[in-house]
Design a protein that fits this description.
The chain is of the alpha/beta class and 157 residues long. Helix content is 46%, strand content 22%. The chain is built from 5 helices and 6 strands. The strands form 2 sheets. A 4-stranded parallel sheet has the order 2-1-3-4, sandwiched between helices. A two-stranded antiparallel sheet has the order 5-6. Strand 5 (131-133) and strand 6 (136-137) form a beta hairpin. Helix 1 (27-43) crosses helix 5 and helix 2 packs parallel to helix 3. It starts with 17 loop residues before the first strand and ends with a helix. Residues 23, 25-26, 57-61, 82-85, 89, 91-92, 95 line the site of 5-nitro-6-ribityl-amino-2,4(1H,3H)-pyrimidinedione (INI).
């Protein structure tokens, strides 16, 4: 036992407004991430009225779309979903890097949770594994993180 005060988020209550920013590239994978994120939010009490889906062209554009969503306001967390698959794409590193960096920047600039649900993988097989098969679903993970962060930031005031 300890007397140390601990502050942490919970996953219950279904409070807050959530925007899900979804890249259109590799939609055969990303739509499964979206399904996972929606299912997770709904199972934790978030109603469809609290959710907005915003479509971006690809992972490179996701940060700017997140920034515009954050600037508009009335959102408590953004869930960014996409898939960057190396598989012969010469600018894989650039797209993946800019997306990752940009999402973190929006989160810090707007003091807003922006969950990173963008797969960056070498192969289509790995992308399939991480979008609802043997290695889980990154969309679900990102939604869980968003729920926890909304709750935690609410407690931190
Ligand atoms: N966008 C993705 O979301 N995933 C990818 O794997 C990808 N690859 O491999 O190129 C990708 N490229 C498009 C990029 O995000 C931009 O939409 C495009 O460059 C126009 O700015």
């Amino acid at each position: 036992m300890t007397d140390i005060k601990t502050i942490e988020g919970t996953f219950t209550g279904g409070k807050g407004n959530y925007s899900i920013v979804v890249g259109r590239w590799n939609s055969f994978v990303v739509e499964h991430l979206l399904e996972g994120a929606l299912d997770t939010l709904r199972r934790h009490g978030v109603s469809d009225k609290q959710i907005t889906i915003v479509r971006a062209p690809g992972a490179f554009e996701i940060p700017l779309v997140c920034k515009a969503v954050a600037a508009k306001g009335n959102v408590d967390a953004i869930i960014a979903l996409g898939a960057v698959i190396r598989g012969g794409t010469p600018h894989f590193e650039y797209v993946a890097g800019e997306c990752t960096k940009g999402i973190a920047m929006v989160s810090m600039e707007y003091s807003l949770p922006v969950s990173f649900g963008v797969l960056t993988v070498d192969t289509i097989e790995q992308a399939v594994e991480r979008s609802g098969s043997k290695a889980g679903n990154k969309g679900e993970e990102a939604a869980m993180s968003a729920l926890e962060m909304v709750s935690l930031l609410g407690k931190l005031g």
